[in-house]
UniProtKB/TrEMBL annotation:
Descriptive protein name: Phosphonate ABC transporter ATP-binding protein
Gene Ontology cellular component list: plasma membrane
Keywords of the record: ATP-binding, Cell membrane, Membrane, Nucleotide-binding, Translocase, Transport
Annotated localization: Cell inner membrane
Main location: membrane
Molecular-function GO term, any one: ATP binding
Domain ABC transporter as annotated: residue spans: 2-246
SUPFAM superfamilies: P-loop containing nucleoside triphosphate hydrolases
InterPro entries: AAA+_ATPase, ABC_transporter-like_ATP-bd, ABC_transporter-like_CS, ABC_transpr_PhnC, MetN_ABC_transporter-like, P-loop_NTPase
NCBIfam families noted in UniProt: ABC_phnC
Metal-binding among keywords: no
Keyword Membrane recorded: yes
Length: 261
């Protein structure tokens, strides 16, 4: 369970980006975070995994206070937080398998990592997950030979190889075409259910948030102003979250893709 209490993030003397945020995520729920650019969506995810340092407040994952961890304790905690990035963050010259196995770097010795010698059980798990998401046939291809959707699937599998307690996804579909982006959203929803894994997704596409997540959290100027099921995220809620400006996708009807993933 993720428990965030009174989270504040300030850069220098500027107005805080996050202003006393409270949020909890548990079970295998899939939660989307929506809001205009600058609302604090990406900052929130990066505070959770400590890619940036919170200014104050509490972030607990399964009872462990993340905001104060340092050194090896922080590295150990990060192993349990999977992250899927908008820009994929793959090493292009490495194969798909090598990129996937990078998710186990926190669990092997430096010598094993340097030699790229991973335990057989890790390799078997990698093949299982790649088969599940439809990329096993690309195991020996270089990452830069894949399409955007295939690259994002590699990123998802790499994160799952960490055996995470929670999966964070920062704009995972922003670089993809509409059909592929819906396939990725459907995939993450299915994996959350199969693995009993909570998933927290920062997303701009409101229609996809409504179609593929069970709960929508709306941020505006660093404050949580909406938290509820998709059916409650109506036009009034949309206007409140986006302050009357045009949202990236104001279509409120869900439009799930029919393709299998």
């Amino acid at each position: 369970m993720l428990e965030i209490s009174q989270l504040v993030k300030r850069y220098g003397h500027d107005e805080p980006v996050l202003k006393g945020l409270d949020l909890s995520v548990e079970g295998n729920s899939v939660v989307s975070i929506v809001g205009a650019s600058g609302a604090g969506k990406s900052t929130l995810l990066r505070c959770i995994n400590r890619l940036i340092e919170p200014t104050s407040g509490s972030i607990k994952l399964n009872g462990t206070e993340l905001s104060t961890l340092k050194g090896q304790a922080l590295r150990n905690a990060r192993r349990r937080i999977g992250m899927v990035f908008q820009g994929f963050n793959l090493i292009d010259r490495l194969t798909v398998m090598e990129n996937v196995l990078a998710g186990r770097l926190g669990y092997v010795t430096f010598l094993q990592a340097w030699r790229r010698r991973f335990p057989q059980k890790d390799i078997e798990r990698a093949f299982q997950l790649m088969e599940r998401v439809g990329i096993a046939q690309y195991a020996n291809k270089r990452a830069d030979e894949l399409s955007g959707g295939e690259r994002q699937r590699v990123g998802v599998v790499r994160a799952l190889m960490q055996e995470p307690d929670i999966l964070l996804a920062d704009e995972p579909t922003a670089s993809l075409d509409p059909v592929t982006s819906e396939q990725i959203m459907k995939l993450m929803r299915s994996l959350a259910s199969e693995l009993s894994l909570p998933v927290l997704i920062n997303i701009h596409n409101v229609a996809q948030a409504r179609a593929y997540t069970e709960r929508i959290v709306g941020l505006r100027h660093g404050r949580l102003i909406f938290d509820g099921p998709p059916e409650r995220f109506d036009k009034a809620a949309l206007d409140e979250v986006y302050g009357g400006i045009e949202a990236p996708d104001e279509t409120l009807a869900p439009t799930p893709a029919e393709e299998n993933v």
